[in-house]
UniProtKB/TrEMBL annotation:
Compartment(s): Cell membrane
The keyword Transmembrane helix belongs to this UniProt entry's keyword annotation: yes
Residue ranges constituting the Major facilitator superfamily (MFS) profile domain according to the UniProt record: 15-390
Name listed for the protein in its UniProt record: MFS transporter
InterPro entries: MFS, MFS_dom, MFS_trans_sf, Tet-R_TetA/multi-R_MdtG-like, YfmO-like
Pfam families the record matches: MFS_1
């Protein structure tokens, strides 16, 4: 288990800060449409389920493309992969903002998801590879970027969305263009030539029990995550909250809570407890939070509290799960990241439209109960797979293991 001092985290090469900055903007794309979901549904006369497809098309393509991102980046290098990803996001975010109907936006969000996949999985591997202060420091920095992006996304979405639902899309395109310039200027070409990995590497990686169990757990965990993020705006509408600014502020609180526990909560817990134990304790707490949201469906204050508490728990789980994946196997990190992220995002793709369908056909609280059950399934998978996850609770990789990991990269 690693015990990095916090001051190590801030002493990073410029390249790491450039990638972290662009990561913040990339993750803003996830929560950005959150406050404008009711507005898009109203403006474009779309059903809640059609509107939730804005999440699904984005996350589904992100998930599928993630499996191939390590293959691409190992051939053209991290910098080019990051830049292609950012360029795609700029183009498709701009196109979404110019759309005249919800079907077009769903399509353009899919293209946005492709850019996101190329960027996100490569960004994690780049930060881990270039950061000083060890793997844990790098992952905390990456999760901080994720938390900050997820926090700012709804706030910016709310502010720009109060002008027009098109505003957040144009805002993202502009910010991504700035991220693109930052990467061009600050990220030097990798001195070492990337070792090409095979197309099948991420799929073969999932056959390793440690990564397989973590990816499966992440799929079910992400269903709970996206029920909270994507369905709650619709659950708040009957309680009188549908304007973009109020929704933006509520989810800014959620994202801020997530960022705080990503950076400070997770390291505090993992310095005292094994990583798998942290997951076994915090995942059931998230299930209880989702259960409470379902029971408090008619209480505005109750739902807001559940959203913020959910953010605190999600921050811990995101960081600890990512650390587990990076430490679980001797696979090259881009391959492990590709495989895990691909499965995880597919879980996120399932949740939003399923939630609105459940709400419409059974009751408004059903999605929260389904999310709670899903998170309990994730907990069960971590418990069942515990014997395969001993390595993630162990000590830092030695130089010999690091060398072995690199030789596996040569062989894949």
């Amino acid at each position: 288990m690693s015990h990095d001092k916090p001051n190590n985290i801030l002493k990073q090469p410029t390249a790491v800060w450039a990638v972290a900055f662009a990561s913040v903007i990339a993750f803003m794309g996830i929560g950005l449409v959150d406050p404008i979901l009711p507005a898009i549904a109203k403006s474009l006369e779309a059903t809640p389920t059609q509107t939730e497809m804005l999440f699904t098309s984005y996350l589904l393509i992100t998930g599928i493309a993630m499996f191939f991102s390590s293959w691409i980046s190992s051939r053209i290098g991290a910098k080019k992969t990051l830049l292609i990803g950012l360029a795609l996001i700029v183009v498709f975010a701009l196109a979404a903002g110019l759309s005249q109907n919800v079907e077009s936006i769903i399509g353009f969000r899919a293209g946005w998801g492709l850019g996101n996949a190329l960027f996100i999985s490569t960004a994690l591997a780049t930060i881990v590879g270039a950061a000083s202060g060890g793997t844990s420091s790098a992952i905390i920095l990456y999760e901080a970027a994720l938390g900050l992006g997820i926090a700012i996304g709804p706030l910016l979405g709310g502010l720009l969305g109060s002008w027009s639902w098109r505003g957040p899309f144009f805002g993202t395109a502009t910010l991504m263009a700035i991220g693109f310039i930052a990467i061009v200027l600050l990220l030097k070409k990798n001195p070492e030539k990337p070792v090409p990995t095979s197309v099948s590497a991420p799929f073969r990686a999932l056959a390793k029990p440690a990564l397989g169990f973590l990816a499966a757990a992440a799929l079910f965990y992400n269903i709970g995550f996206f029920v909270l993020l994507a369905y709650t705006p619709f659950a708040l509408v009957p309680l009188g909250v549908e304007d973009a600014i109020t929704l933006g502020l509520i989810f800014f609180g959620w994202g801020l809570a997530l960022a705080i526990t990503s950076v400070w909560g997770a390291p505090l817990l993992t310095s005292r407890l094994p990583r798998t134990r942290v997951l076994q304790i915090v995942m059931p707490l998230l299930a209880v939070d989702l259960l409470a949201a379902g029971l408090l469906i008619r209480s505005l204050a109750g739902l807001i509290v559940c959203v913020i508490v959910g953010g605190l728990l999600l921050g811990i789980l995101n960081t600890v799960l990512t650390e587990c994946v990076m430490e679980a196997t001797d696979l090259p990190r881009p391959v492990a990241s590709s495989a895990y992220s691909g499965v995880r995002f597919l879980g996120g793709a399932i949740a939003p439209p399923t939630a609105t369908l459940l709400a419409g056909s059974i009751s408004p609280s059903t999605p929260f109960f389904a999310g709670a059950v899903s998170v309990l399934v994730a907990t069960a998978l971590i418990i069942i797979g515990h014997k395969h996850l001993k390595r993630v609770d162990g000590v830092e990789e030695s130089a010999i293991e690091e060398a072995e990991a690199l030789s596996v990269g040569d062989a894949s």
